[in-house]
Amino acid sequence: MTLSRKQREIAARHALFLEIADSILAEEGFHLLTMERIAEIAEYSKGTVYQHFTCKEEILIQLCIRCMKELHALFEKAAAYEGSQRDRVVAVFYAHQLWSRTGNNQTDLMLHLSMHGVREKVTDESRNEHDRLEHSLVRLVEGLVLQAIDNGELKKQKHMQAADIVFGLWSLSTGGQMLHVSDLPLEDLGISEPNMTMLRTLVVMLNGLNWQPLHKEAHLKKLLKLFNTELFAEQYQQIVSATNKNSTNASL
Questions:
Q1: Element of type H or E holding 65
Q2: pLDDT digit string, tens, across residues 88-105
Q3: CB–CB of 97/146 below 8 Å?
Q4: How many CA atoms, within 13 angstroms, populate the side-chain half-sphere of residue 155?
Q5: Alpha-carbon distance 197 to 177, whole Å?
Q6: 235: in domain
Q7: Is the model's pLDDT at 214 over the cut of 80?
Q8: pTM beyond cutoff 0.85
C-alpha cells in the first residue's frame, strides 16, 4: 500500500522521536527521558510528541518492540543454520550476544521495561505485541530443544523439561550481558573475555546435559569463525567497526 505524503511525514516524525528517545536513554538514562526533552531536541511542540505517544513509557516499550523484532530475525537465522540442533542453539546464544552489542545498549533498554511500573502505563496494543514477540522467541528456542530430543541428540532429562533448559540458557545469556555492561571491574576479577566466558559456560552446560555431539574448544572456535564470516557477518562487522571507531576516538 502506497502511503500519502502526510502519512509518510507522520511516520518519519514518529521514527525521529523514537531515535531521539533512544539516544537520551543510552546517554542519560530513563529518569531523564521526558516528552519535553524529546520535543525540544526534535524542535516540535510537546503536544505533537503526545500525538504519537501517550507517555514516555509507551516510547520505551515501542523501542523494546523494535529491538525484539531485530532479535527475532537473528534467532530465526540462527535456527536455520545448517548444523546440528546443538550448533543451532549455540548460534542462537551467539546471536543474542551480537544483538546486545549493537545499537544503544539493547540489554539495558530491555531491563528498563521491567522497572519503574512501565508495563502498567503502556497501551494494551503495545503490551500485547511485546508479549507476543517474547513468547515467540522462547518458543523458537524451545523448539530446537524439543527437536534435539526427538532426533536423539538430547535425552529427556529426569528433572528438567525443555522449558527449564530454555530458562537456563536465557538466564546465562541475559545475566552475563547485564554484568558485562555494568560497572563491575570484570578484568580486575579475572574475566578478560566476558563473551567467550559465557560461550564456554554454555558449552559446559550443554555437555553436562550430554547433548550430542559433545563440543570442545576447537569446535566452538570453528563455529564462531563461521558465524562471524558467514551467518552473522553483517552484525559482526558492525561491532568491529564500532570498536575500531571508539579506539580511534580514545587515542585522539
A1: helix 56-79
A2: 999 999 999 999 888 656
A3: no
A4: 7
A5: 11
A6: yes
A7: yes
A8: yes
